[in-house]
Amino acid sequence: MDLVTIFISAILINNFVYHYFLGICPFLGVSKKIDAAFSMGTAVTFVTAMTAVLSWPINHWILIPYNLDYLQIVSFILVIASFVQLVEMFIRKTSPPLYQAMGIYLPLICVNCCIMGLALLAALKNYDFAETVVFGVASGLGFTLAIVLMAAIREQLDLADVPEPLKGAGISLIVTGIIALSFLGFSGMIK
């Protein structure tokens, strides 16, 4: 598959939030302010890129040759948990206000199903190394696009007259569904 096609597809067509509905917990939790949403998206992009870089060799040089495919989930969890801890320590050291703003959602990157979905989908689609890295970076950028877009909308929703029962997660999920429908329009662009 062409690298440009994989890149565009992962951001717009097969966006983890809008197509697969993965990563909804941090998506809803951190999408209240644009700056926190962008920071979370950047952290997720870094972790997805590094997960792609490390999961491919583990899968293709260790697990597949030795018929240890059944250990994919465990090995991918170890890779993801390691990098999330690295990112968390880096953010805590370099930007304590950002660390406070992201709160519990920063360690939750570790269990963010977007990242696990990336590792498993790349293995399932049998991407080569370059395709896996492009898929990893683009998936993170797609998550960043989704969370920043939602943060911008939620900042405007704070000023809107939303019925009381729909305030908070209710209206956020409705808006997410509408955005997902609009992203569905991109699906005919690339086969």
Features:
191 residues
List segments where confidence is low: pLDDT < 50 over at least 5 consecutive residues. Answer: none
The portion of residues assigned to helices is over 70%
Q: Total helix count? A: 8
Whole-number radius of gyration? 17 Å
Number of domains: 1
Q: What distance lies between the first and last C-alpha atoms, to the nearest angstrom?
A: 10 Å
Major beta sheet summary: none
Approximate strand percentage:
under 5%
What does the overall shape look like?
globular
Which secondary-structure class do the elements indicate? Answer: mainly alpha
How many runs of DSSP E, i.e. beta strands? 0
Mean pLDDT: 89
Q: What is the string of SSEs from the N terminus onward?
A: HHHHHHHH
Oligomer: single chain
Describe this structure in a few short sentences.
The chain has eight helices and no strands.
